[in-house]
From TrEMBL, chain A:
<dbReference type="Pfam" id="PF00528">
    <property type="entry name" value="BPD_transp_1"/>
</dbReference>
<dbReference type="GO" id="GO:0005886">
    <property type="term" value="C:plasma membrane"/>
</dbReference>
<feature type="transmembrane region" description="Helical">
    <location>
        <begin position="78"/>
        <end position="99"/>
    </location>
</feature>
<keyword id="KW-0812">Transmembrane</keyword>
<feature type="transmembrane region" description="Helical">
    <location>
        <begin position="226"/>
        <end position="248"/>
    </location>
</feature>
<feature type="transmembrane region" description="Helical">
    <location>
        <begin position="7"/>
        <end position="27"/>
    </location>
</feature>
<keyword id="KW-1133">Transmembrane helix</keyword>
<keyword id="KW-0813">Transport</keyword>
<dbReference type="InterPro" id="IPR000515">
    <property type="entry name" value="MetI-like"/>
</dbReference>
Automatic annotation (TrEMBL), chain B:
<keyword id="KW-1003">Cell membrane</keyword>
<dbReference type="InterPro" id="IPR050166">
    <property type="entry name" value="ABC_transporter_ATP-bind"/>
</dbReference>
<keyword id="KW-0067">ATP-binding</keyword>
<dbReference type="InterPro" id="IPR027417">
    <property type="entry name" value="P-loop_NTPase"/>
</dbReference>
<dbReference type="Pfam" id="PF00005">
    <property type="entry name" value="ABC_tran"/>
</dbReference>
<dbReference type="InterPro" id="IPR005890">
    <property type="entry name" value="NO3_transporter_ATP-bd-like"/>
</dbReference>
<protein>
    <submittedName>
        <fullName>ABC transporter ATP-binding protein</fullName>
    </submittedName>
</protein>
<keyword id="KW-0472">Membrane</keyword>
<dbReference type="GO" id="GO:0016887">
    <property type="term" value="F:ATP hydrolysis activity"/>
</dbReference>
């Protein structure tokens, strides 16, 4: 984009945020008095930020503690999504048989909401007693987050230039070597696009999953404050969830671009 | 029985309309060990299809391809190919690309030896200084040189070149032709090369075989290039044998195109001394 003036990349986004604050302030002063103003929100929530690692009780902790619980949960779910998604994507891209068998099923499962998956997860893991809900949450994250990895990997596999595969054939590379030295590097950029999108979804799903489990995390904290009728922490949580999601996306973007150069 | 034989090879593909188009029809070829044969043909005539069958990447619908009397059933590095398009793996350096092939073909050698072998061939195509560069950091000509080095390093029984310089500009193409001739003067490998450039064929090959215009293309009569080596690209232009050969091969190709019931588009003017490529190539 064209450079408008020095530091426009810093100043203009601040203008955007200021506009949003202004609207928020205006609303809370006029039609929605129950919603605290930006300043009141800060006053009420600064304890979470200023003592980010405090642990007063299970559901009253510093912001970084909550974020950490949630991130660990997301990491586990995302890891599982990648572990299942990459081989599934490879099969989908390589085998017309597999594609014809499962494409329709995947298209049907993909749009199902996390709120619908969770109860099924809880039913699946009842044998784990007190851990059942935690596993149900992981299940939900994994099932919802794996699709972009599956689909992007499949697209990447189909996009491998025939020339590369011909080189592998002429050199008589073994199946394993072809996969490891030719196919995987060729698909890697596509896979990382999938990973970035999957991580975004995993983070999107975490709030819903935690609301349903009640296990400590940013989502359950939000839910608890909602049930208690505290509005400031809700707004605060939304901002934190957004910022963390943004940072995750940035990190994945950097990783993705590193692998694009090949 | 010669070194390489194509015995009445035909190959067709299913066409978009559901029918079948026979791309190659009853192609015969015999080549002796150490010979350098160039197949010249129009773009889309089926040159790559022909080459893929010698390489073993495709199987003929009928007829056989035989190397030293054995029928070819699959691909292998003993018939290493320089592909028409850039076929280097872009995530590996020039060295790694060649080394991958060397590791594969000479697993019995120790690693130090394989490294040396790889380096020697890269130096042979004058890329000693650029071995650690990725293909994206190499020019088109350099990339194709790496491909040639990779193929030669496999020490194939027959080297297959599919329009190896087709994507290069005229100057680079000339340099690479000269290098190919130089390499060839030191190493009398059997080479089958495909090109759409009659001049290139006359310059580098011992024998030229035209591929008639497709569909149902077939290999025509053999034209022997009886011009002594080393050949010089500038001097050869004035050689009467060169002029005659060029005219004969071009006439044959254009005649074959005109013979087709549905003639492929033939350039309005018969290419005179200026126009090298026959047909419209990529
Ligand atoms: N796998 C395939 N399936 C269907 N048709 C094919 C296939 N491969 C080649 N053809 C057709 O066969 C014909 C010859 O193709 P081929 O690639 O052998 O031509 P070529 O002489 O190498 O052309 P160029 O000079 O452009 O490289 C073309 O009409 C092409 O459309
Ligand atoms: Mg071709």
């Amino acid at each position: 984009m064209k450079k408008l003036f020095p530091f426009d990349w810093l100043v203009l986004p601040m203008v955007g945020i200021a506009c949003a604050m202004l609207v928020w302030y205006g609303l809370s002063k006029t039609i929605t008095p129950k919603v605290p103003t930006p300043l009141a929100t800060w006053e009420e929530c600064k304890v979470y930020v200023l003592e980010p690692f405090a642990k007063r009780s299970e559901l009253d902790q510093g912001v970084l503690n909550f974020t950490r619980y949630s991130l660990v949960r997301v990491a586990k779910g995302f890891f599982l999504a990648v572990l299942i998604g990459v081989p599934t994507g490879f099969l989908l891209g390589m085998s017309p048989w597999f594609f014809k068998c499962f494409d329709l099923l995947f298209q049907i499962l993909r749009p199902v909401s996390p709120l619908a998956w969770f109860p099924l997860g809880a039913a699946l893991f009842t044998t784990f007693k007190q851990d059942a809900l935690e596993y149900a949450a992981l299940f939900t994250i994994t099932v919802c987050a794996m699709w972009p990895t599956v689909l992007n990997t499949a697209v990447g596999v189909r996009a491998i230039p025939q020339d590369y595969l011909n080189v592998a054939k002429v050199l008589k590379l073994s199946a394993f070597q072809t996969l490891w030295k030719v196919m995987l590097p060729a698909v890697l950029p596509y896979m990382f696009t999938g990973f970035r999108l999957s991580l975004g979804i995993a983070w999107l799903v975490i709030v819903a999953a935690e609301m349903l489990t009640g296990n400590p995390g940013i989502g359950s904290f939000l839910n608890q404050e909602y049930l208690a009728g505290h509005y400031a922490p809700i707004i605060f949580c939304i901002i934190i969830i957004g910022v963390v999601g943004f940072i995750l996306d940035r990190i994945m973007n950097v990783v993705e671009r590193r692998f694009k150069t090949i | 029985m010669s070194y390489l034989n194509l015995n009445g090879v035909s190959k067709g593909f299913r066409s978009a309309s559901g029918g079948r188009t026979e791309v190659l029809h009853d192609a015969w070829l015999s080549m002796e060990r150490g010979e350098f044969v160039a197949v010249v043909g129009f773009s889309g005539a089926g040159k790559t299809t022909l080459m893929n069958m010698v390489a073993g990447l495709a199987t003929p619908d009928s007829g056989t391809v035989q190397l030293e009397g054995e029928t070819i059933t699959g691909p292998g590095p003993d018939r290493m190919l320089v592909f028409q398009n850039y076929s280097l793996l872009p995530w590996m350096t020039a060295f790694e690309n060649v080394k991958l092939a060397v590791d594969q073909v000479f697993p019995q050698w120790d690693n130090k030896w394989r490294r040396e072998h790889t380096e020697n061939y890269l130096k042979m195509v004058s890329l000693g200084h650029a071995m650690d560069r990725k293909p994206s950091q190499l020019s088109g000509g350099m990339r194709q040189r790496v491909c040639v080095a990779r193929a030669l390093a496999c020490e194939p029984r027959i080297l297959l070149l599919d329009e190896p310089f087709g994507a290069l500009d005229a100057l680079t193409r000339g340099t690479l032709q000269d290098e190919l001739m130089k390499i060839r003067s030191q190493d009398d490998r059997t080479i089958l090369m495909i090109t759409n450039d009659v001049d290139e064929a006359i310059l580098v090959a011992d024998r030229i075989i035209p591929l008639t215009a497709g569909p149902r293309a077939t290999l025509g009569p053999s034209f022997t290039v009886d011009i002594e080596r080393p050949r010089d690209r500038k001097e050869i232009n004035h050689d009467s044998r060169f002029k005659k050969l060029r005219k004969d091969v071009n006439d044959f190709l254009l005649g074959s195109a005109a013979d087709k019931r549905n003639p492929v588009k033939v350039p309005a003017k018969v290419p005179s001394f200026g126009g090298t490529p026959v047909g419209v190539s990529a």
